[in-house]
Amino acid sequence: MPPPPPPAPPSQEGNVEHAHMLANVWMNAQKLADMVKQEGLVYKKGKFSVIEEAQLNAAIEHYRVAKGLTQDQLNDLIFSKERGRDTFWQEITSALHLRPIIAVYHHVRRNRHPLSQQGKWMETEDELLTQAVADLGQQWERVSQRVGRMAGDCRDRWRNHLEDRGRRKAGSWSKAEEEELTQIVTEMTVEQGRDFDSEVFWGVVSQRMGGKRGRQQCRIKWTDTLSSQIKNSGERPRWSQLDAYILVHKVDSLNVRDDTEIDWKLLPDENWNVWSAHALQRRWLTMKRSIKGHEEMSHAGWSLLTEMMEILKTKKSHVPGSSTSRKKKSKVTSAEAVVEVDDVEGNMGPVAGPSTGIAINGVV
User: Fold this and answer.
1) By the 8 A CB rule, do 321 and 351 touch?
2) pLDDT tens digits, residue range 74-88?
3) 312: domain range?
4) Of 44, 62, 139, 344, which sits with the fewest C-beta atoms within 10 Å of its C-beta?
């Protein structure tokens, strides 16, 4: 008998039609974006969490056993050019929550590809890739066959490291470059009615900078430095103990089972919005690694996060600057709520706010 299927995920905010659409309709990025605007579609993007990986692997194995497939037959199905020849992709996508079928398709094929996990690129491979692109253009499947790397890896290597390499600069950014990047991102976000943290096509940004900086360089410079500086009245902000305190309690309030499930874009609020999602994720990882022996903790998903949260909450158990430590009675989701709860429960005096300028007890 085949193993029981994985538990069905909850429906999308009660919208069964949208949940069915995500699992069954092949929509590209533009179509998904249109559905978000027109129909209020909600779906997940970004890296798959540890929990999602487990659900997906269980669904794939259940399908294999139920259909009586060998591992080779399963691989033939996954890498078939006829992706709609049966219900495989629909069934395994239904095991997840809010993931579009096209995203699951690419994720599974990338992770199970025989050419995956090949490590650092060698100079000879870069030369081979450069020649392949010169001969074939950006036809990544054909380029992949020539280079011996996955199509997505070839594409990313080319776009992030090799394209325009002769014109590309390395090292510190000049003031003029920072101003140019800021102007370009402003035109693509704020001047289009969006905020500074909206997603942009970094390849386009790189092109508009004349290829002097690559798409990855532009993205990192913006998310790690310039966006925070602009939102802090032109001054580069400094990460404070209160910022760390707020971050820990915000993560705690999410009720996630593993930190790979965190959508970092959801953490900032109107009182705490200087730090980009990428910066918050990096700060979290730094705090996590500060826990002695964190590598030896249980890696059973939620239990690992629970262990770490208890340690971090103890380390950040009171607002920096106070002399009182009191355990939280309720979970909070906003920066303002975090500091107000402590002020009421601990009867604390004024403390220094984080770099964002949050007013606490009348002090900014």
Assistant:
1) yes
2) 999 998 888 777 799
3) 241-346
4) 344
